[in-house]
């Protein structure tokens, strides 16, 4: 497999996991009763969001991905 494809796949899976944790926190907030606190899911979301940003910065630094110089 191409490293770019693997990198994109990992990013998409992490973003889906972030959305899943956000949805779980929303469900707990609306429902109001749960054994697991809502902050656990929100904390996971923040940690994985930071991980996504760090992965993007590392990929740009190593040259796996290149930023678009002309965005128009």
Structure description:
This protein is mainly α and 72 residues long. The chain is built from two helices and no strands. Helix 1 packs antiparallel against helix 2. The longest helix has 29 residues. The relative contact order is 0.15.
Distance between the termini: 31 Å
Low-confidence stretches: none
Tell me, rounded to a whole number, the average pLDDT: 89
Structural class comes to: mainly alpha
Biggest sheet, in brief? none
Helix content: over 70%
Share of β-strand residues = under 5%
Number of strands: 0
Question: Rough shape?
Answer: elongated
From N to C, what is the helix and strand string?
HH
How many separate helices? 2
Q: Rg, please?
A: 16 Å
Helices and strands in order, then pairings?
Layout: H1 3-31, H2 38-62
Helix pairs in contact: 1-2
Q: How would you concisely characterize the structure shown here?
A:
The protein has 72 residues and is mainly α.
Features:
72 residues, 75% helix, mainly alpha
């Amino acid at each position: 497999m191409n490293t770019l494809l693997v990198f994109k796949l990992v990013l998409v899976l992490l973003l889906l996991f972030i959305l899943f944790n956000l949805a779980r926190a929303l469900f707990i907030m609306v429902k109001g009763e749960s054994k697991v606190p809502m902050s656990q899911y929100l904390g996971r979301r923040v940690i994985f969001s930071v991980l996504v940003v760090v992965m993007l910065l590392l990929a740009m630094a190593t040259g796996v991905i290149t930023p678009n110089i002309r965005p128009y």
